[in-house]
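Kindly go through the following sequence and its backbone structure tokens. Advise at your convenience whether the structure tokens fit the sequence:

___
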Amino acid sequence: MPFVDRLPHWVTALFRIALLGEIYPDIRAIAVGYSEDGDVLIRYYLDREPTDFDRESIEIVATNFDALGGKEQRINKIDVQCIHAVEAKRYLDPLTGFIYSKREDFS
């Protein structure tokens, strides 16, 4: 799926609401991919292997996002991924853009 270069403002605005209550310490970053065809990919980068809790959380975010704007914005489909990421954030794929990134101290 070819992503656009920047997240549209409406996507960012909807994620501000969709993520309420779903950010927790094990999430290092959340990347979002968005294509003009209406395809969305939500990816959690975790500091440990994904669990059922993580998969449930990301599904809640996807459901919230879809409920908030899926019909008006013509969201075609939403895919989700949970990835254990040990590398520095600068090496993580932002897809179209990061919607959340935890501050990390590497001193």
